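Q: I'm building a small set of examples for a reading group on sequence design. Run inverse folding on the following structure and report the sequence directly after it, with nothing in between.
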């Protein structure tokens, strides 16, 4: 597991529990990351761990202000992965995720 000595990524700070509906290659998934350690696991899983060092996300305040940019970065990686594969990977990494069945959701 990746760690950082300072900044918001060093602990288990609560982020809230709002699910993000993200596109996959053949559908959507709802992903809920409630703590910073879960978000760090998600970024590691999608190969974007450098985002934990990105100045746009350097504090909890920055994460809130720049949430749309972070979600866009994550979505960019998931859009190439089939939904069932995405769900399997997310669940194996202990990241809460479920299929979104409505086509326009």
């Amino acid at each position: 597991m990746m760690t950082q000595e300072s900044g918001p990524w060093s602990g288990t700070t609560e982020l809230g529990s709002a699910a993000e509906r993200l596109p996959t290659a053949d559908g959507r998934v709802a992903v809920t990351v409630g703590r910073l350690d879960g978000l760090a696991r998600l970024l590691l899983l999608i190969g974007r761990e450098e985002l934990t060092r990105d100045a746009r996300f350097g504090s909890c305040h920055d994460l809130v202000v720049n949430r749309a940019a972070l979600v866009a970065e994550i979505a960019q990686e998931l859009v190439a992965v089939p939904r069932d594969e995405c769900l399997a990977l997310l669940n194996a990494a202990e990241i809460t995720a479920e299929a979104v069945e409505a086509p326009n959701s």
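Residues 17 and 34 are 5 Å apart (CA to CA).
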